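REQUEST FORM: STRUCTURE PREDICTION
Request ID: SP-0412
Submitted by: Lab K.M.
Chain count: 1
Length (residues): 205
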Amino acid sequence: MQTLVVISAEIIAYLSLDFKLIKKVGVYIASTVFLYIIFLIAFKQSAAGIEDKHIESISINDPKNELLKALSKKLIDTNGRKLVLSGNKFYVFNFSTYTSAPCQIKLLYLEKFAHKIPANLNLVYVANSGMETFDEFKSKLKHDKADKIIYAYLYDEDLLKKLDINKYPSEIMLSPGFKLLREQQSFYEFDANTYEQQTLELLKK
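STATUS: Completed
RESULT:
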């Protein structure tokens, strides 16, 4: 682009052969600056148009978002009925199993944390058919009325593989519209020191 500007300026200067030296220099400098500004503006507008289209294509066709929407439609509750989730809320999906010590540590923490969260956030405990049967899942629940956690079960192991859920506990936090905000694996007692603050901060985004 810069080469083109210089060549154009030289042509303009050449066309002004009848001018004196000082005028020629003036024409050269003025034309160089003018043409550079014109080409720079045109280049930025073209690049911005390309970038906007790229961002739009990612947000619309992101396969991860489609998998998360599929997950939100395939969970069932403790009675075996489809779990209906709101697309206007934030969700923390905690993929867990009763045989894992870290899972139990996190569940105990989430039971307490659930009493502090705002109304636009729901905590969902997710068990799956690859780790336990539906009856095992139900039998391990305390069914405590004070428990604010939503308990769900998933039969679709293939969906978990596509979401890269292969360690327990694993967590996916979603924004309204079931879009990915955070992914985490494992949980230890010291994680409780920062978990609450980090999670509540994400609600502001």
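NOTES: Confidence is low (pLDDT under 50) at residues 42-61.
Reviewed by: T.R.
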